[in-house]
Write a structure and sequence with these properties.
This protein has one domain (3-52). The longest helix has 22 residues, at 3-24. By secondary structure, it is mainly alpha-helical. The chain has two helices and no strands. The relative contact order is 0.09.
Length: 53
């Protein structure tokens, strides 16, 4: 498995776990936080992809 695939899979798993824990009430609501910060997340991912090449 390539490193890029592992990172992508890990990110999806972490996001899924955060939303699941939020639904159980074990951590504060993630939805509003994600709704506010999704542009920054996209920028960080884009920078990572540029630096990786």
């Amino acid at each position: 498995m390539r490193a890029k695939s592992r990172i992508s899979a890990s990110v999806l798993i972490v996001i899924g776990v955060l939303f699941l824990l939020s639904n159980f009430g074990w951590i504060p609501r993630v939805g509003p936080l994600f709704a506010q910060w999704w542009p920054a997340i996209l920028i960080i991912v884009g920078i990572y992809l540029l630096v990786q090449r």
